[in-house]
Amino acid sequence: MDRNFTPVNLGNADAYYALWQVTPRRSLDYTLANLWGWQEFYGLEWRFDERLCWVRQTRPEPRCWAPIGDWNAVDWTALLPAVGGATGREFIRVPEELVHIWQRASPELVETGEDRGQWEYLYRQEELATLAGNRFHKKRNHYNSFVKTYGQPDYRGVTDAMVEDVLGVQDDWCQWHECENSPSLLAENEAINRVLTHWDAFRGLTGASLYVEGRMIAFSVGERLDDESLGVHFEKGLNGYKGVYQAMNCEFARHAGAGLRWINRAQDLDEEGLRQAKMTYLPADFLRKYKVRVRPA
Asked: Is residue 136 domain-shared with residue 114, that is, in the same domain?
């Protein structure tokens, strides 16, 4: 289990995408863009075998993530004892569906714990795209304020030629928020730069931006996760433009999420302010993930 791990890299993209496409539950955490973006911060590594890609982080401490591949094609009754080894093994960010598969295969070996901070927020696309009804009146008021001040949103899809402008918005945002004084914001800034500077390496990646008087003032970067879901990796708006986040969120859901059922806006990492902000958009469900300990056989 511990042999032959190598750093997550783009040279193995085809092998990873082949397994990703057959993974029953596709969490935003496990997209190649996310693994690559945060590779250095978490020291992310992977190992491929016949049916699965095993993922682990090495920083700030070694932790195993869930494997990627067709979970239903694996004989877990035979494999889990080997996974647990002589001393047991801890996993984090394990989607609920895989937890249930492991529990059915070897309930005596699987011990689970809730990890609320890793749950990914799922919103109905139609609700984010329209902000209709009394439940969303505050969000709609912010959106309408943006329209009243700046006109109908000048929404543009992100192309290769626009990546430099997106990075410029990110740089301005980082200066305003003093990223150099925040390890978490610095890490996110690095992830955004890693993903955007390798834009063409990722399948299904999509982006959009808002302009005011010819200036890019906001952007979103997302990814089609499956036939029903659009995940949002990053979203930034410049200070001084009232309603910019509500406008970017709504327009991205409306355009990039057209025809889909869900918008996945990632987890809150147990940050109270972030949790409150995500809850104000009234999630309809969660992609639940758990900590799992596979006990020794």
From this structure: no
What is the SS3 assignment for 55? strand
CATH of residue 65's domain is: 3.40.630.30
Bridge partners, residue 54, by sequence: 47
Say if residues 131 and 278 touch (Cβ distance below 8 Å): no
Longest Cα separation, the chain: 65
Rounded-to-10 torsion of CA 176, 230, 15, 189: 0
Query: Does residue 230 surpass a pLDDT of 70?
Result: yes
Q: Is the peptide bond before 60 cis (omega within 30 degrees of 0)?
A: yes
Per-residue pLDDT of 258-293, as tens digits, reads 999 999 999 999 999 999 999 999 999 999 999 999
Q: What is the Cα–Cα distance from 276 to 234, expressed in whole angstroms?
A: 18
User: For residue 201, is it left (φ>0), alpha (ψ between -120 and 50) or beta?
Assistant: alpha
For 45: left if phi > 0, alpha if psi spans -120 to 50, otherwise beta; the answer is beta
Same domain, 85 and 222: no
Torsion of CA 278, 281, 285, 290, to 10 degrees: 0
DSSP H helices, the chain, are 13-20, 32-37, 39-42, 76-84, 96-105, 125-130, 137-150, 163-176, 183-196, 244-255, 272-279
Q: Among candidates 296, 291, 295, 297, which has minimal Cα distance to 91?
A: 291
